[in-house]
Design a protein that fits this description.
Structural class: alpha/beta
Oligomer: single chain
Mean pLDDT: 93
CATH superfamily: Vaccinia Virus protein VP39
Strand content: 25-35%
Helix content: 25-40%
Number of strands: 7
CATH architecture: 3-Layer(aba) Sandwich
CATH class: Alpha Beta
Largest sheet: 7 strands, mixed
CATH topology: Rossmann fold
Radius of gyration: 16 Å
Strand order of the largest sheet: 3-2-1-4-5-7-6
Length: 206
């Protein structure tokens, strides 16, 4: 079935607006500047992370995202940031890259929409160099039972409106199951709480 007018035209603009809010931008600024060398960005979208890279530390960025309708804006932001960016119209479950080929991997607000996050994280670990870092910031499973109940209740309505976003993914468990060892921080950053619990930090291959 071809994508709807909503998913092709309206949704990318809504995601760009929501994911560019101040609190989310501050989260990006916590992790993205650590990236160095050859970088893989998972779910590059419209390129909202590109303004946060330290261009002196980065040699090349490969951005993967199946949403080709967002690529033109990402390329414009890459030019504005003075960064060399190569875009691939792919999801992250199968990455066309050799083992240990990236110094850094950036994944912000993408694990919630990847259909198979376990497979994607396994691929990230495969292509990350020993000593490299996975830099992440994600929203996910809340620690409070009442909030988790609302995450479950709202999921069926939320997912089609938010481009496949899953509210309650257990980010620490997913990282651990993939073999990553993480320095991880988490707390509520905004309301509504069902979408406001964030995890961020950096992880090595373990």
């Amino acid at each position: 079935m071809p994508p709807s007018l909503y998913s092709r035209l309206l949704l990318p603009r809504l995601i760009d607006c929501a994911c560019g809010l101040g609190v989310v931008s501050r989260q990006r600024a916590r992790v993205v500047p650590r990236a160095h060398g050859r970088v893989l960005e998972i779910g590059i979208g419209t390129g909202l992370n590109l303004a946060h890279y330290d261009a002196r530390r980065v040699t090349h960025i490969v951005g993967v995202d199946p949403g080709v309708e967002m690529h033109p804006l990402a390329l414009r932001r890459a030019r504005e940031a003075g960064l060399a960016v190569e875009l691939m119209p792919l999801s992250a479950e199968t990455l066309p890259a050799p083992e240990a080929s990236f110094d850094s991997i950036v994944c912000t607000y993408s694990l919630c929409t990847i259909p198979d996050p376990a497979a994607a994280l396994a691929e990230m670990r495969r292509v990350l160099k020993p000593g490299g870092e996975l830099l992440f910031s994600e929203h996910g499973r809340a620690p409070d039972p009442r909030v988790r109940a609302w995450q479950r209740r709202l999921q069926s309505v939320w997912t089609p409106l938010a481009g496949g976003c899953q509210l309650g993914r257990d980010i620490p468990a997913l990282l651990a199951a993939a073999g990553f060892t993480a320095e991880l921080h988490s707390r509520y950053l905004h309301r509504p709480h069902f979408a406001g619990y964030h995890y961020w930090g950096w992880a090595g291959r373990g």
